[in-house]
Design goal:
Blueprint: E1 2-9, E2 12-20, E3 27-31, H1 38-44, E4 55-63, E5 66-67, H2 75-81, E6 82-85, H3 96-106, H4 112-125, H5 129-132, H6 145-157, E7 163-167, H7 175-188, E8 193-197, H8 201-207, E9 210-215, E10 218-224, H9 225-230, H10 235-241
Parallel strand pairs: 3-8, 3-9, 6-7, 7-8
Antiparallel strand pairs: 1-2, 1-4, 4-5, 9-10
Helix pairs in contact: 3-4, 3-6, 4-6, 6-7
The structure holds adenosine-5'-triphosphate and magnesium ion.
Length: 246
């Protein structure tokens, strides 16, 4: 999916010759020390780096047979098929209901019945329904951090993406809220391809099927999660997962 990808922020070479096959309907974790390029890499997967001044990209990201960086690619379509969840929950300052219908409305859907159904389904899929079903008109900002993050996942699901990119989605959450998001990721992979950046190696080991270890802009090792954690092929990977640096 990702071929000879190189990325520069002005003269900082932040991604170096990244080659990686993301497997559909599996969870891929990206790990590595701070500043190694994890966020940069997943932002390139839905062209979120386009808006950063001085950012230059070379190489291909092939999604469903097409390079998302080809001239004729429609960035809006790319982002609607490849959704993103950020480190800090960032619900819109509006009701729970409106957060989820926002995307569909932008895409021209106004039928109340369809919108109601979307809200219902996305909240169930993001494991939030039971907690909020009686207060859909309340402000999203009245929810706890963990609930807000699940709402952001529901909002991402509302436009029916195929891939979900998550950049440290649990780093601002407590262990219980984190466990809920992890369960949710496992549930989501039935229908979606999930790529998750995490600082937490236990989390990567717990939830992912594939793991990529990055260091100084390079993808050092990529493989089945058990292999990376139990039998790493590179010394650098082993040093990192055994906590010798990072
Ligand atoms: N918007 C930006 N403009 C310029 N340089 C950037 C930008 N974002 C990241 N960088 C640089 O790119 C490199 C990789 O940063 P990135 O944020 O991808 O790392 P990361 O692995 O996600 O780190 P962390 O674990 O701390 O989130 C760093 O050298 C960083 O300074
Ligand atoms: Mg980051």
């Amino acid at each position: 999916m990702c071929k000879d990808l190189n990325l520069w922020y002005d003269d900082n070479h932040a991604l170096k010759d990244i080659n990686m096959d993301i497997i559909k309907n599996e969870i891929t974790a990206i790990i590595g020390p701070s500043g190694c390029g994890k966020s940069t890499l997943i932002r390139s997967f839905n062209r979120m780096n386009d808006v950063i001044e001085g950012c230059k990209i070379k190489g291909d990201i092939i999604f469903e047979g097409n390079n998302i960086y080809r001239k004729s690619a429609n960035v809006r379509t790319v982002r609607s098929r490849i959704g993103m969840i950020f480190q800090k929950p960032n619900p819109f300052p509006m009701s729970i209901y409106d957060n989820i219908t926002y995307g569909p409305k932008v895409h021209g859907i106004y039928d109340k019945e369809i919108l109601d159904e979307t809200v219902d389904e996305c909240l169930k899929r993001s494991a939030l329904w039971d907690e909020v079903k009686d207060r859909l008109s309340h402000s999203a900002l009245s929810l706890s951090g963990g609930q807000q993050q699940r709402l952001c996942i529901a909002r991402a699901l509302s436009i029916e993406p195929e891939v979900l990119l998550m950049d440290e989605p649990t780093s601002s959450l407590d262990p219980i809220a984190t466990a809920k998001i992890e369960d949710l990721c496992r549930e989501l992979k039935r229908k979606y391809t999930v790529i998750i950046v995490t600082h937490n190696m236990q989390q990567a080991a717990r939830i992912s099927d594939y793991t990529g270890f990055m260091y100084l802009g390079e993808l050092i090792e990529f493989g089945r999660t058990e292999q990376i954690f139990e039998n790493p092929q590179k010394e650098l990977t082993e040093n990192y997962i055994t906590g010798r640096f990072g």
